[in-house]
Design brief:
Elements (H helix, E strand, L loop, with lengths): L3 H15 L3 E5 L5 E4 L2 E2 L6 H7 L7 E5 L5 E4 L5 H7 L5 H8 L3 E3 L3 H11 L4 E3 L5 H11 L6 H4 L2 H11 L4 H24 L6 H15 L2 E2 L4 E3 L19 E6 L1 E2 L8 E6 L6 H19 L7 H18 L7 H7 L26 H6 L24 E4 L2 E3 L2 H10 L8 H5 L6 E3 L2 E5 L4 E3 L8 H9 L2
Parallel strand pairs: 1-7, 5-6
Antiparallel strand pairs: 1-4, 2-3, 4-5, 8-11, 9-10, 10-12, 13-16, 14-15, 16-17
Helix pairs in contact: 1-8, 9-10, 11-12
The protein binds glycine and manganese (II) ion.
Length: about 450
Amino acid sequence: MITQDIYVNRRNLLKRQIGSGVILLLGNNESPRNFADNVFPFRQDSSFLYFSGIAEPGLALIIDADSGEEILFGNDSEINQAIWTGALPRLKEKSAKAGIAKAESFDRLLVRIKQVMSNDRVVHFLPPYSPDRCLLLHNLLGIKTSMLASAASGVLMQAVVEQRQYKSEEEITEIEHAVNVSVDMHEAAMRMVRPGITERDVVAEVTRVALADSAGLSFQVIGTINGQILHNHDYSHRLEDGQLFLLDAGAESAAGYAGDLSSTFPVSRSFSPEQRDVYEICLASHEAAIAELRPGVAFKSVYYKAARTIMEGMKDMKLVKGNLDDALAAGAHAMFFPCGLGHMLGLDVHDMEDIGEQLVGWGQEPRPVQFGIRSLRLGKILQPGFVLTIEPGIYFIPELIDLWRKEKINHQFLDFDQIEKFRSFGGIRNEENFLITETSYRLLGKKKPKTVAEVEQIRQSV
Ligand code: GLY
Ligand code: MN
């Protein structure tokens, strides 16, 4: 459990890291779907959550790094609102729970910020990602909305990443709970797929398991027979014998921590020989990447290990030719693996992505621009306490095959006639979550079925 003293300690450390000025952390607001009272499920901003533990909408927090003063801003709900929502905690109760000494109404935030600015003191804020927070920051600070991202405080961004990238024992307990529920979601899907039902039926069951045992989903479910579309949210297809089903889904723990797993399994009771061959290559890549995990290793090199394993398998299958070092340097592996290998995981499924992938995933090292590796969200040197995903995939993307063939991209390494035979194959991905320990790594949560034998055993037991 993440207790009040942990939130207090995080804020005290933040003050020491920042040294001087006022830190402004904005919570999220309700977000309307189609009219004001019909809202999307509320999710608190993760940095606000990390430093306060308060999951309700309509709040802001200022932390004075010089005086140490902390003030929570918000409004108490009125009787009219309580009729519809039930009694909500008072602002004072929220601040007391977080160990924040002062609470003031939201309109006082503008007064306070104006005071700070009139004294020529710096207001540190994180890059905003929602229109309402952009507008609020514009009104508070007078900065054009288009300039807010570049005006965000580099010192604060760095300090938040410095804290949030190392997961504590309590956070790991939360993530493991989320992963365990995620494993149940995946096993439920593996048991239920069969010809005749729809993708939507599977997504409904996966969502049911998440809601029954956790705070819900950590991101929108990807549940599809078109696994080659990496973030596919179309659930309209009916399942047929011979297809592969790709599920990428995770639960969120009560305190807001994410699980993020992917599995690929046959709609029939077993893989076809061709599906098994590609699946084994994808799994070998997954295992090769895991074997590299330890402190001091750059995740970029783990990515190349995974990519090389895919290319070796593809060469055995005669889809790839030539020297593999040259092929990897040229980015030819992106024909099958056009995305990253994994990302940080924590309060966000792509942890801290709002603060910036460069800072979070690459630090001082410039992010590569080559197609394929440019989608790698994490490249930097691994350290104990990092939590990350490993999720290599093999995808046959008709549009990419056509483009590379037409433009002769990497044609010296790719046999397009052979690749063409896999045009309607789809995509395969396995994904698990890991903690980097002092000496190596630890799989988080219980084991997910992933070998051919484990997956087919489930498929044949129903
Ligand atoms: N689970 C979705 C992703 O990692 O992008
Ligand atoms: Mn992922």
